[in-house]
Amino acid sequence: MGSVTEFDDEVFSAALEAAGSPVDQPRIQRAVREILAAIGEDPDRDGLVETPKRVAKAYAEFFAGLHQDPAEILSTTFEIDHEELVLVKDIPFYSTCEHHLVPFHGSAHIGYIPSAEGRVTGLSKLARLVEVFARRPQVQERLTTQIVEALMTHLQPKGAIVVIECEHMCMSMRGVRKPGAKTVTSAVRGQVRDPATRAEAMSLILGR
Q: Catalytic one among 61, 105, 170, 200?
């Protein structure tokens, strides 16, 4: 069992700089200037003149996962002859809602039963897997499914479970304006669908 409380953003920033960001930052800058003008602001005033550049740089970081391959994250495995549930919970993350381009954030809990060979991946790789899919325009339901499918495809475990709890700024800042409301999604595959195994996993996830 593991609990991840911090993720280093520098891993993704360094990777982008090393490879050369595929994000068209000048195009983003032009678009941000247009948005500022469209809402009635002056994009050339002191407080905003550098904003398009800052937003473009931020977007390159926010959406870095579009240009990263989850297979690379899970390519390193270890044979340790462990056939029971492996669970990393409370993995914090931020993502961007594709409907309004505002953040949603929360925690991911990932568990899997290793393959018959007892092969596992490093615990930090599970946290990085969350980041790869979170750093894209997303909806929580798809994020949950993408993570569990990546586990099943690349680790080939006997089963896997992913549970995600989030607060969505599109519900907190606008619309119904219900700050603090949480959305919970889950995806279960393989042997974890067995009622007893699923109950064990959920008890470990919910136990604080």
A: 170
